Amino acid sequence: MTSTWRLWDRSRWGGGHWLIEILNAHHVELDQEVPVHQKTDKIPYAPELQFHVWVLTHAVLPLVLHQLYIYFFGYPSPWLVFFYYHFAFQFNAVHEVRVLRRLGHKIGFLDGDKHPRDGVPDVGVGKTVQTLISVIVLRPMYTVFLAYRPDEGPSSIRWGWLIFETGMYALMIDFWYYILHRSAHETENLWRFHRTHHLTKHPNPLLTAYADTVQEFVDIIGTPLLAYGSMKLMGFPMGFYEWWICQAYVVFTEVLGHSGLRMYAGAVNPWTWLLKLCGVYLMLEDHDLHHRRGWKQSQNYGKQTLVWDKLFNTAGARVEALADNIDYVNTVELPLI
Cα separation of 39 and 37, whole Å? Predict the structure, then answer.
């Protein structure tokens, strides 16, 4: 995963290099130090409530603006809704990457005493950008296509259902992802579609969706649609706006889970308190350790919970995020802006 392109003369850059630069979606600043900690050093604690505030603020604001548009101008067309939520999705994802970068320069990264975070590889800039564009275009597109109703606005959200939907959606998308992900690791014919994603042993948020085309389809379209279909079959309303909030939680965790930030934090959804109580809470370090392992020796296949890893005995031991290695005084704050 050689990544030197940010040091090249910019006359050598192509469109992909410039897009990443213009979006300012780098995982670290080249001119700023990153603190390095030994694994025995205590890791700072990140209070969970701030993650919910972050996700809901960035998910609800577009809904409020959408409702105001309806009040003044009437219901927008599906195409206008698609472009609007496409840009909202892109803004939220890129903004999260920038916020996490600032945190990285404050608290450092997991396994930082052995290896820095991988950058976007010189040979994979185009692939990274292509996958990034696919995510921010296709997820809003199929959400609009399947769930948007032109005569319903954000005020139609079934608030009584929402807390159940967001928690169950995380569980269901993790179920389908676990099955497909573990199959890709344990079946040689499927591993060839997944191995590109594992070229990074120390991923950063831009490498969240860095993968072969088949895995791109599974991650971007396959598992979300399977989860959505499963939810509908179970009787959940799963309207467009509820699904938007469900995906806001999932995408936030996907980006956070590939950041490698050295803090006691993990996947966030309204059921997190229950997952912690049952010992199936997915920590940042869990997925980070998954990337450091080989293909058939890997563990921690879930990306939203440890429910299925615990159930099928594929959860691995942590190294830094241990219960007796937490600094509850040195807390981490996640800025909203």
Answer: 6
pLDDT tens, position by position, 265-304: 999 999 999 999 999 999 999 999 999 987 777 899 999 9
Instruction: Round to whole Å and give the CA distance between 131 and 98.
Output: 19
First to last CA, the chain: 31
CA distance 117 to 206: 11
Query: Per mean pLDDT, which range of 94-103, 170-179, 203-212 is the poorest?
Result: 203-212
Enter the pTM of the model: 0.95
* 175: enclosing H helix or E strand: helix 159-186
Query: d(Cα 194, Cα 213) in Å, to the nearest integer?
Result: 9
- In 3D space, the residue among 271, 184, 262 whose CA is nearest the CA of residue 219 turns out to be 184
Q: Which two three-digit tokens encode residue 20?
A: 């990443």
With cut-offs at 50, 70 and 90, classify the pLDDT of residue 213. confident
SS3 percent helix, strand, coil of the chain, rounded to 5, is 60, 5, 35
Determine what percent of the chain is predicted with pLDDT higher than 70: 100
Cβ–Cβ under 8 Å, residues 244 and 85: yes
Indicate the average pLDDT of the chain.
93
- Name 322's Cβ contacts closer than 8 Å, sequence gap at least 6: none
Q: Which residue has the tokens 């996958």?
A: 131
pLDDT of residue 90: 93
Give me the helix-helix angle, 240-257 and 159-186, nearest 10°.
Answer: 50
Distance, CA of 285 to CA of 267 (rounded, Å): 11
